Structure formats: structure tokens, C-alpha cells
């Protein structure tokens, strides 16, 4: 009887000894599984969020680039030097001077030339077209048409009118592609600009 009890106690002790490490192993395995899942999930979530934010930033930058309006380029200025003609105080003859002009559109060249003709010379020579107004200027092939408005202060006597026509035609005839000039006053082909000298329509290059 005593031996039977001793054997039963040994069996219980052995069984208990086996259960304890197995339980510990199971807990360790569960803990590793849970811990490993937590470690793996955290970087996975972080990577996805970072990638999503980067994609959104890239899309926003792309949209900003596409929606920005293109800035038009300003046309380059063309610079030329031309001869401009003035008269002396006595209106006896013409004096030639060089003048630098600038324009962006070739269509504006005729107007810019007239503006240069309206300025007094660098040495005090008087402009014969200072008070005149250029209403329009156009070129059709080799023919130039200038439409002028002449207020009272722009009208000269006979010598002044003759020199004014010469100054204007010599200024424009220096252009190689211009062979004729038609001068109009307020849109009309008048016989005389200022009432003294008759003019042809058009005036042709000599």
C-alpha cells in the first residue's frame, strides 16, 4: 500500500513537471506570435502612409505645373540707324543727321521713322514736321501711304512746304523696298499739302 502511494505521487510530480514547461512554451509561442505581428504591422502601416503622402505630393506638384499659364515671350526689338532731314533757321536747305530707331513689329517702322522726323536735330536744327500728326502709315509692296493731319501750326510757307516734302520723301526713300509715297491729308488725296506746292499721287522715287 505504501509503495502504491509512492508510485502515484511520483506519477503526479512527473506529470506536473511536464505540464509546466509545455505551458511556458505555449505562452512564449503566443507571446512571440503576438509580438512578431505587432512588429511586422507597425512598419507596414508606416510604409503605406509615407508612400501615399509622397504620391499625393507628386500629384499636387504635377497639377501645379500643368495649371501654371505659359508666359508669352516679348518680341525682340529691332534697332536700325536711318538718315533724318532737317532745315536751318532760314529754311534755305536740308541737313542730314543719323538717328537710331527701335521697333518690335516691322509694321511699326514707318511710324517710328515719322516720329524721328518730328524731333529737332541734335545740333538744334528745326524739324519741319514737328506739329504734324500721322493718322496712319501702311506699306503695300513697294508703295507707302501716309495719312496726315495738318493743324494750322503745322502749315508752312512756300519754301517751308517744299523743304518739308523733300525731308519726308528723302527719309522714306532711303528704304530699299520703297519706290513710291502717297501723301494724304485727313484721308484725302489733296492737290497741295499746305496750299503752295502741288504734289503727285503718288510721289515716285527719283
Measured as a percent range, the helix fraction is: 40-55%
Oligomer: single chain
Strand portion: 15-25%
Please provide the ordered H/E string of secondary-structure elements.
HEEHEEHEE
Structural class: alpha+beta
The counted number of beta strands is 6
- Ranges with pLDDT <50 over ≥5 residues? 1-7, 20-41
The number of helical segments is: 3
The average pLDDT is: 78
> What form results from the Cα inertia axes?
elongated
Give me the side-by-side strand order of the main sheet: 3-4-5-6
**Sheet with the most strands?**
4 strands, mixed
Describe this structure in words.
With 206 residues, the chain is of the alpha+beta class. The chain is 45% helix and 21% strand. The protein is built from three helices and six strands; from the N terminus they run αββαββαββ. The strands form two sheets. The chain has a four-stranded mixed beta sheet with strand order 3-4-5-6, covered by helices on one side. A hairpin with a 6-residue loop joins strand 1 and strand 2. Helix 2 packs antiparallel against helix 3. The radius of gyration is 49 Å and the shape is elongated.
